[in-house]
Design goal:
507 residues; 2 strands; two-stranded antiparallel sheet
């Protein structure tokens, strides 16, 4: 009852004109920032943060919070329509979103992304409201050993969950791991695989890599296969009505969004896990337990729903350790932590006692901002789907320019542009040879966090690997990894024995 009373008081704070306007502006800017490749929520909040210092702290954090989960909405747009993920969490969305666009269902993919984002975000906010401090303490149970085991579990899953050929999926995963090790190592500060190039000392930037492998490779595909919009089965009239899901489709994404929202929220509270991990693990869960799991990756709205619900719930979940413990759960939350401290607020257990108006005003505003974000996102669907009617002769140079500008804007370096072009050519030939690209990119994102957590765990134990077995959580995750690895072999052995048994019985 105290929580509900505090939440109602929070709504009294957030439902003022200035705070509603801040939530609306933040959500709108978040959608725009998320849709532009090369920016993302960290960059957007870092740029907007100085502008909020003159605001009331509650108004300022409401605007920044709305921008954060607005970015989760916007990142799916370019992933679905152009196959260029706006940020890392949208990589998984493109697996089913872009094939849906190619099949003439881009509007339905966008509508699914927005509705599932709203459902996942709402689940995350509700869990934050009622279990914020508890979730934060659960997150503390995941130390370096536990986080390393969790990410290793994800790495062992992506190779054979994404792609028709498990061997090719694993090869793509290993390539992603190798690319992630380029640059100065975080453990000893020594350059690795830089070939004496100063441009590689900081490693490979994610944005040029993802733009090249998804965006520019698609330019090459469009140049080879000139596809007219009419060939996709698209009519001249595309609007919100044509994008709406029918009753069967809506009912099919509801359970997906709910369970992905719960999982994404739990992943979001883990320090360093972030929305990308939440999005991917939600997709993996749907791949394993969903009714259409085997068809994910071929253009299914359930895949879009799982990814988008997972990353929005993870974004909401990252606020739990931030507010309750003062521990950021992601890079974006770390920037928000700096903003809170500059406003003179000290996140932690006492924040709920000393500044209840601030905390509950922020939490209540998340409900408001989530509604505003989905309304704004749905309103622009009719304009976005018009992109699907643009002839290839126009789209090819436009997408190419977007790829170049997006790559250059990261570090203002032409090296990133040339690297993006090279990555696009490599991805083009990998796709032609049926090597999946998504495992490479996901491994590239997850490997640095795995390396850091592994190094920290071994430092804590002074090099004793038994730290992974002494932790019940880590030991359980390692057991799951063993099962993931042995399951295909056991299944193949069982089928062989069964065939021999049938053959012997027939004789």
């Amino acid at each position: 009852m105290d929580i509900l009373q505090s939440l109602m008081q929070g709504f009294a704070t957030s439902l003022t004109f200035s705070n509603i306007l801040a939530a609306l502006v933040g959500a709108g800017l978040g959608i725009i920032v998320g849709a532009i490749p090369g920016l993302g929520s960290v960059t957007g909040i870092a740029l907007l943060l100085p502008l909020t210092f003159q605001m009331d702290p509650i108004t300022g954090i409401i605007m920044l919070g709305a921008l954060y989960y607005g970015c989760m909405y916007g990142g799916s747009y370019s992933a679905i329509l152009l196959n260029i993920p706006g940020d890392a969490p949208a990589v998984v969305t493109s697996l089913d979103g872009y094939p849906l666009s190619q099949q003439g269902h881009g509007g339905k993919a966008l509508f699914t992304a927005n509705i599932s984002s709203f459902i996942g975000g709402t689940v995350g906010i509700i869990m934050l409201t009622f279990m914020g401090p508890i979730l934060a303490h659960v997150g503390l149970m995941f130390g370096p050993a536990e986080v390393a085991a969790l990410i290793l579990l994800a790495l062992c899953s992506i190779g054979w969950l994404l792609g028709d050929n498990p061997l090719k999926g694993l090869i793509s995963t290993f390539i992603g791991v190798m690319l992630a090790t380029i640059g100065i190592g975080t453990a000893f500060g020594q350059p690795r695989f830089t070939f004496d190039s100063m441009y590689l000392l900081n490693g490979i930037s994610f944005i040029p890599l993802v733009i090249g492998m998804f965006g520019f490779s698609q330019v090459l595909v469009m140049m080879v296969n000139r596809v007219d919009p009419s060939a996709k089965g698209l009519s001249g009239r595309l609007g919100l009505k044509e994008s709406l899901l029918d009753r069967k489709e809506a009912l099919s994404i509801l359970p997906v969004s709910l369970r992905s929202g719960v999982l994404g929220n739990l992943v979001g509270i883990l320090p360093g896990a972030g929305a990308t991990t939440g999005s991917f693990l939600s997709y993996v869960l749907e791949k394993k337990v969903g009714r259409n799991g085997a068809e994910l990756g071929k253009g299914r709205i359930q895949g879009v729903a799982a990814s988008e619900a997972g990353n929005n719930a993870a974004a909401a979940g990252s606020f739990a350790p931030l507010l309750s413990l003062g521990i950021p759960g992601s890079g974006t939350a770390a920037v928000l932590l700096g903003g809170l401290m500059m406003w003179g607020l000290q996140p932690g257990p006492l924040l709920f006692q000393n500044n209840p108006d601030f905390v509950w005003g922020l939490i209540s505003s998340m409900y408001l901002g989530n509604v505003m974000a989905v309304l704004a996102a749905l309103a622009i669907i009719p304009f976005l789907v018009k992109l699907l009617l643009i002839p290839a002769s126009i789209m090819i140079p436009v997408i190419a320019v977007v790829c170049v500008v997006g790559s250059y804007s990261v570090n203002n370096s032409m090296f990133d542009v040339w690297f993006m072009l090279g990555a696009g050519v490599v991805a083009f030939f990998m796709t032609a040879a049926r090597y999946p690209i998504a495992p490479l990119l996901l491994a590239f994102v997850l490997t640095p966090r795995l390396e850091t957590s592994l190094r920290q765990a071994l430092d804590i134990s002074r090099g004793d690997p038994m730290i992974f077995l002494r932790s019940p959580i880590a030991a359980t995750l390692l057991t799951l990894i063993l099962l993931f690895v042995l399951y295909p072999l056991a299944k193949r052995l069982f089928m062989t024995v069964r065939r021999r048994g049938h053959k012997a019985a027939a004789e």
